[in-house]
Amino acid sequence: MSSQNVSKLILERLRLIDALPHFPEPLIQLESMLSTGDVPHMDTLSALILKDPRLTSGVIFSANTAKYCDSGSVDCVEKAVSRIGLSDVRLLLNAISLEKVLTKKSLLEEKVFMQHAFVTGFMAKQIAKQSGKEASLSFLAGLMSSIGIYLLISDDEKKYQKVVKLVEKKQMLLSQAEMKITESSYPAVGARMLQQWKFPVAVIMAVAGQTAPQSMNEKFQDLAYVVQLASILSCENGFELGLKGLDGLVQLEKQEEAKAKAMTYLGLDDEGILNKVVEQALEQAKLSGFI
């Protein structure tokens, strides 16, 4: 059975036991609008946010943080949206939503996992900008890049423990061990979930191809390489995946070649430029309060 079919079966099992994460409907509506090029008016966006109390409180809170608050506090969604702007509101809503849909797993350190997701998002955004690639969806693709790990753990935590042990014992990449034990991988399962959440096709394909960007259709390679490099850089800077019992260094040692290829593809061979990208990404993550 193909990895895609196995991924579909995994999500169906999660749905049957009511363990499938549910993204807020207002956010799915927003992503559907934006994916068709339809930019919502600020009033429409505010109305969507107000449908979900978690999104409402998160946007108002963020509008009053140091990154945005330069002239007094705001106490309503409309003012918060106006202050933050559409681009950052979109990133913020997805970040808030991802954090809210995760439930506790004994194999996963949620805080570490979320910090990896946030930092990967900011890394991807800076990498795309520095390399001259389309940056509008880069944060979103980086943020969602590891959601498949959570889904595979949710499906069968004992089986996933075998994945972790195989990575440690055989010095195998995580996605390779997942294929051997579960017959699927976190990029495939994550992409399938994002498809159900109606995310932009470019984001879905970047998540699907993040461990093998060279095998993707050319029009999706740029973002896939961006996500791959962003995830590696996150781990290198101490923001690991949060899998208990898994030494992140095992993964890094196996990804040196992938990192070098991604840097060459993206035109970021200069270590000085890459270090600047990392520095800016971490600074943005700290300003946003995500780390």
Could you explain how this protein is built, in words?
The chain has 291 residues and is mostly helical. The protein folds into 2 domains: 22-101, no CATH class; 105-287, Hypothetical protein af1432, CATH 1.10.3210. It is built from 17 helices and no strands. The chain has helices at 3-16, 25-35, 42-49, 53-63, 77-84, 86-101, 110-131, 138-143, 147-155, 157-170, 174-182, 186-196, 201-208, 218-236, 248-254, 256-266, 271-287. 45% of the residues are buried.
Give a concise summary.
This protein has 291 residues and is mainly α. It has 17 helices and no strands. α7 packs across α17, α9 crosses α10 and α14 packs across α16.
Shape: globular
Tell me which CATH architecture of the largest domain applies here. Orthogonal Bundle
* Assembly state: single chain
Main β-sheet description:
none
Kindly report the name of the CATH homologous superfamily of the largest domain: Hypothetical protein af1432
> Gyration radius, to the nearest Å?
18 Å
What would CATH call the class of the largest domain?
A: Mainly Alpha
Beta-strand content: under 5%
Please provide the count of β strands. Answer: 0
- CA distance, first residue to last residue: 40 Å
Order of H and E elements: HHHHHHHHHHHHHHHHH
Number of domains: 2
Mean pLDDT: 87
Number of helices: 17
Derived from helix and strand composition plus strand pairing, the structural class reads mainly alpha
Helix content: 55-70%
